[in-house]
Automatic annotation (TrEMBL):
<comment type="similarity">
    <text>Belongs to the Deltex family.</text>
</comment>
<dbReference type="GO" id="GO:0007219">
    <property type="term" value="P:Notch signaling pathway"/>
</dbReference>
<dbReference type="InterPro" id="IPR013083">
    <property type="entry name" value="Znf_RING/FYVE/PHD"/>
</dbReference>
<keyword id="KW-0808">Transferase</keyword>
<dbReference type="GO" id="GO:0008270">
    <property type="term" value="F:zinc ion binding"/>
</dbReference>
<protein>
    <recommendedName>
        <fullName>E3 ubiquitin-protein ligase</fullName>
        <ecNumber>2.3.2.27</ecNumber>
    </recommendedName>
</protein>
<feature type="domain" description="Deltex C-terminal">
    <location>
        <begin position="42"/>
        <end position="175"/>
    </location>
</feature>
<keyword id="KW-0862">Zinc</keyword>
<comment type="pathway">
    <text>Protein modification; protein ubiquitination.</text>
</comment>
<keyword id="KW-0479">Metal-binding</keyword>
<keyword id="KW-0963">Cytoplasm</keyword>
<dbReference type="InterPro" id="IPR039399">
    <property type="entry name" value="Deltex_C_sf"/>
</dbReference>
<dbReference type="Pfam" id="PF18102">
    <property type="entry name" value="DTC"/>
</dbReference>
<dbReference type="GO" id="GO:0005737">
    <property type="term" value="C:cytoplasm"/>
</dbReference>
<dbReference type="GO" id="GO:0061630">
    <property type="term" value="F:ubiquitin protein ligase activity"/>
</dbReference>
<dbReference type="InterPro" id="IPR039398">
    <property type="entry name" value="Deltex_fam"/>
</dbReference>
<dbReference type="GO" id="GO:0016567">
    <property type="term" value="P:protein ubiquitination"/>
</dbReference>
């Protein structure tokens, strides 16, 4: 078969190879050379709720603004065909999970992109927990969140690089402005 060029990155592939790559994820394709996403990447996050509140309190390192609080609620259930063990139950341990952002320009941008990542089902997935070792549980999915107010275990503030880092992680998942 012939060769075709990907639209976003212009890398060339055999048509048969591209068809094989697209078989597992027909809604998007990720270039194996440069990781550019073609189409809209969606995930396997189970159903739940994302709630956003504004707190009249400043995070450490962001005394010039108040705080955005994000609450994620997911309950246990039965895995669908897209999950690792279809038909088997999964647990949602540690929910609701709460995360914090500074309520400034960059924090609002991150919030908007996190809401899009939530819509695309990219924030959580079902798998094995790295921290507990449990299988068939809801876990974070490569987009880090600050879940502590003060930095006790690397999950809190102050962290002057967090907003830039999470923007890069969102970009890697295909979630951009």
């Amino acid at each position: 078969t012939g060769c075709v060029s990907l639209v976003v990155c212009s890398h060339m592939f055999h048509l048969g190879c591209l068809r094989e790559m697209a078989r597992g994820t027909p809604q998007f394709l990720q270039c194996p050379n440069c990781k550019a996403l073609h189409g809209e990447k969606t995930g396997t996050q189970p159903p739940g709720e994302m709630e956003v509140l504004e707190l009249n309190r400043s995070l450490p390192g962001y005394q010039d603004c108040n705080t955005i609080q994000i609450t994620y609620r997911i309950r246990g259930g039965v895995q669908a065909t897209e999950h690792p063990s279809p038909g088997h139950p999964y647990q949602a341990i540690g929910f609701p999970r709460i995360a914090y952002l500074p309520n400034n320009t960059k924090g609002k941008k991150v919030l908007s992109l996190l809401q899009e990542a939530w819509r695309r089902r990219l924030i959580f997935t079902i798998g094995s927990s790295v921290t507990s070792g449990l299988k068939d549980v809801v876990t974070w999915n490569e987009i880090h969140h600050k879940t502590e107010w003060h930095d006790r275990g690397g999950h809190g503030y102050p962290d002057p690089h967090y907003l830039d880092n999470v923007l890069m992680e969102l970009h890697a998942q295909g979630v951009t402005e």
